[in-house]
Ribose 5-phosphate isomerase B (Candidatus Wallbacteria bacterium GWC2_49_35), 231 residues
Amino acid sequence: MNIVIGSDHGGYELKCVLAEYLKSLNHIVEDVGTNSREACDYPDFAFKVAESVASGRAQAGIMVDGAGIGSAMCANRVNGVLAATCNELFVTRNAREHNGANVMCLGSQVVGPGLAKKLVDVFLETKFEGGRHQKRVDKILAYSGGGQISQQQLIAAVIERVLAALGGANCAPTGTAAAACPEIPDQKLIGEDYVKNICAPGSALVVKKGTLITPLALDMAHKKRITVSYQ
């Protein structure tokens, strides 16, 4: 798995421990800093971690500061990112199972290296349950203030990842027109359940102007070899 990791000066030592631990498990690790104990500002590195996940360069992110709170606040400002403070095993598992978190934030003053490794294991091994939790996650990703759904804000954050993931692999065979996914009148949000249950494998999904498609829905489209295009 491609994992991005970062820290401020307070989390530097724990970050180094976790980076080496992840490499020992054969993960590909991108370290975005900081690279010393010299005082620095955690937002600078939390944003780098979050942007790497949002762009698709990394499949999961880990950020370490003193408490794991400020970095989570920063990471959640990046569209497409669901960050959680994960200083306890139950919370970490819940963050993945129910909330689909893709960035975990740890506090070096709260957890030691041993517990931190266990938390990382739980975060990476636990799968998102979907189901009733899916629509709640979709609402989080779709919210842009005032109850408005902003296609541009979310699509801009994930479009690079989507194009890289699709890579033409979802195209229908030459000379064959892919069947279109059934349309839902006035549909403003395309979630994973719609793509999973409504769209046939190998079909075509057109995302109309003013409609939002979530990252999880795009991932499902890729798995089902569905061609996604935008109007």
Notes: Residues 132-230 form one domain. The mean pLDDT is 86.
